[in-house]
Amino acid sequence: MDNVTVFKAQKWAFSFIAEHQKETSAAELLLQGQMNWSTTEMLVHYQDVLSQEQWALFKANVIKYCQGWPAQYLLGKANFFGLELKVTEDTLIPRQETEELVEWILADHKNPELTVLDIGTGTGAIGLSLKTERPTWQVTLSDISPKALAIAKENQARLNVTTTLVESDLLTNIVGTFDVIVSNPPYIATDEADLMDESVLKHEPKTALFAPDNGLYLYKQLAKQLTGHLRPHATLYLEIGFKQAKAVTEIFAQEFPHATVQVKQDITGHDRMVKVSF
Ligand SMILES: C[S@@+](CC[C@H](N)C(=O)[O-])C[C@H]1O[C@@H](n2cnc3c(N)ncnc32)[C@H](O)[C@@H]1O
């Protein structure tokens, strides 16, 4: 096609994606994301002719999307809690469910003087959202993956905030005590891989997804390592798999008999978050 306008490009992408039985909304998302346009800007530019490079890149991305690449990896960015974060295949694409964990923490904590630790930060999604919303909090971002941590560092620079970044297997390299500890650790049982979306399995990092012991391994390890890192009245927030509420509650109730463990449902009614109040 010659002289491809934004309108024509989107029309082509829409029918190509529909033919491949994928989400047709990706047509708009991929073009908007590539051009860095808002929905309104897209409408303003509807009759503009794309350059050959722009059209070639868009076509290549649409084709890759239909082959199973997540749109966020193609664009190199994802939206989370109103922030635009860099993502690569070294980081999990932050999910909407996790935004609810951030909301829960913000609703519970108005004190401007808190120390916060985000374990398994990936892109920095949770910790950087908290830091952006509560700039006076002292936030530490940690991950076992140096590659993920490098992306979190880039994201903090893009957002113009300052946190402490620590490469650590859970709490092993973490020094200090915290008012709030939050983690969305890998929690998918290895034998659940068969039930998962192929594009997730093929492109997202396995270390961000899977954990041994029916997905409970990191919760158990974390429970054992927490003592010595908790400030008085500290709270721990965890994302969990929707069938893990009972098991995770038991892990923390056993390790900390005086703590209160609360399970919270996400917007779709599934048990997806746990809070431990010490
Ligand atoms: C499910 S992803 C969550 C990423 C990010 N917090 C989010 O919510 O989008 C889990 C993250 O935990 C990290 N991770 C896995 N095992 C870890 C460990 N033992 N200690 C610290 N981080 C770990 C992974 O590298 C990955 O970045």
Automatic annotation (TrEMBL):
<dbReference type="InterPro" id="IPR019874">
    <property type="entry name" value="RF_methyltr_PrmC"/>
</dbReference>
<feature type="binding site">
    <location>
        <position position="143"/>
    </location>
    <ligand>
        <name>S-adenosyl-L-methionine</name>
    </ligand>
</feature>
<dbReference type="InterPro" id="IPR050320">
    <property type="entry name" value="N5-glutamine_MTase"/>
</dbReference>
<keyword id="KW-0489">Methyltransferase</keyword>
<dbReference type="InterPro" id="IPR004556">
    <property type="entry name" value="HemK-like"/>
</dbReference>
<feature type="domain" description="Methyltransferase small">
    <location>
        <begin position="112"/>
        <end position="192"/>
    </location>
</feature>
<feature type="domain" description="Release factor glutamine methyltransferase N-terminal">
    <location>
        <begin position="9"/>
        <end position="76"/>
    </location>
</feature>
<feature type="binding site">
    <location>
        <position position="184"/>
    </location>
    <ligand>
        <name>S-adenosyl-L-methionine</name>
    </ligand>
</feature>
<dbReference type="GO" id="GO:0102559">
    <property type="term" value="F:peptide chain release factor N(5)-glutamine methyltransferase activity"/>
</dbReference>
<keyword id="KW-0808">Transferase</keyword>
<protein>
    <recommendedName>
        <fullName>Release factor glutamine methyltransferase</fullName>
        <ecNumber>2.1.1.297</ecNumber>
    </recommendedName>
</protein>
<dbReference type="GO" id="GO:0003676">
    <property type="term" value="F:nucleic acid binding"/>
</dbReference>
<dbReference type="Pfam" id="PF05175">
    <property type="entry name" value="MTS"/>
</dbReference>
<dbReference type="Pfam" id="PF17827">
    <property type="entry name" value="PrmC_N"/>
</dbReference>
<dbReference type="InterPro" id="IPR029063">
    <property type="entry name" value="SAM-dependent_MTases_sf"/>
</dbReference>
<keyword id="KW-0949">S-adenosyl-L-methionine</keyword>
<feature type="binding site">
    <location>
        <begin position="120"/>
        <end position="124"/>
    </location>
    <ligand>
        <name>S-adenosyl-L-methionine</name>
    </ligand>
</feature>
<dbReference type="InterPro" id="IPR007848">
    <property type="entry name" value="Small_mtfrase_dom"/>
</dbReference>
<comment type="function">
    <text>Methylates the class 1 translation termination release factors RF1/PrfA and RF2/PrfB on the glutamine residue of the universally conserved GGQ motif.</text>
</comment>
<dbReference type="InterPro" id="IPR040758">
    <property type="entry name" value="PrmC_N"/>
</dbReference>
<feature type="binding site">
    <location>
        <begin position="184"/>
        <end position="187"/>
    </location>
    <ligand>
        <name>substrate</name>
    </ligand>
</feature>
<dbReference type="GO" id="GO:0032259">
    <property type="term" value="P:methylation"/>
</dbReference>
<comment type="similarity">
    <text>Belongs to the protein N5-glutamine methyltransferase family. PrmC subfamily.</text>
</comment>
<dbReference type="InterPro" id="IPR002052">
    <property type="entry name" value="DNA_methylase_N6_adenine_CS"/>
</dbReference>
